[in-house]
UniProtKB/TrEMBL annotation:
Its main location: membrane. It comes from Ligilactobacillus hayakitensis DSM 18933 = JCM 14209. The chain crosses the membrane at residues 12-31, 37-58, 74-93, 105-123, 130-147, 159-177, 189-207, 219-239. This is DMT superfamily drug metabolite transporter. It is found in: Cell membrane. Belongs to the EamA transporter family. Residues 8-146, 160-289 form the EamA domain. It is a multi-pass membrane protein.
Amino acid sequence: MIKDKRRLGMIFAIVGTMFWGISGTVAQGLLQNGVTAQWLVCVRMIFAGLILVIWSFFTIERKIWQEIFSKKNFLSLVVFSIFGMIPSQFTYFKAIEAGNASTATILQFLGPLFIIIYLAFATRILPRRIDVISIVIAILGILLLVTDGDMNRLTLSPAALFWGIMAGVSQASYTLLPRELLKKFDARAISGLSMIVGGIVLLPFVIFQKVPEFSPQNFAALFYIIVFGTMFAYLLYLMSLKFIPPETTGMLSAFEPFTATILTILVFHIHLGFFELLGGLLILSTTFLQSISIKRK
């Protein structure tokens, strides 16, 4: 039974992160056509959140909704929205806007390492040897990714590097923050409400922006981002946290950069040099190091 739940959690995490990886490539096309990261994040959160809340409204008992909206629980949800939901989405799309979906998702994968660092401070226990090795390999991977082996130049803009690293930090906080809420309530309701709250918080920053003109193709792209790249991706990711620890969920997010990199190369014909690819693989290799250490426990 425990193994079945763990397997289900892993499937949720993998499919959710693949949806997000595809979403990054789709979003890159919109961002290159005049759509701003702020506008896209605000719209996707509000509409995806509304869909999730409406869906869960008909399947969750009214007394549970009352518990969610109690002062303590709703305050926790607002904190998750502001410090988890908004940063995880905004920094990721800013990284795509400043660079591309491939490098943004690879740098975002630094999230599990920030989880390791956070847990070390929170528990006051020094990281294990395998964790330290993972961190060193990830730093080396970043250097190769942004320089392509030439330390005298950057192949990735400073803005793309900054937002990519911040996306990793935000992903770590997003993974760690909602665990208590998820233990008590349905993931659809929590993720949907937090998206709506996050979208409302961002609304003043985008309400006066010019609404971009959309072709049928761009509408289809926005639909995918809202329904699959946001609603289902976040829902599956949050549901995975019910069955597997945040470290494992974070590690399985390696499927996101793999998906985004392949699609970015195929769709946008972006060339990645040998050392850039090597750097990306080094960052992702920390997944396997951490997986080995978990199996040995």
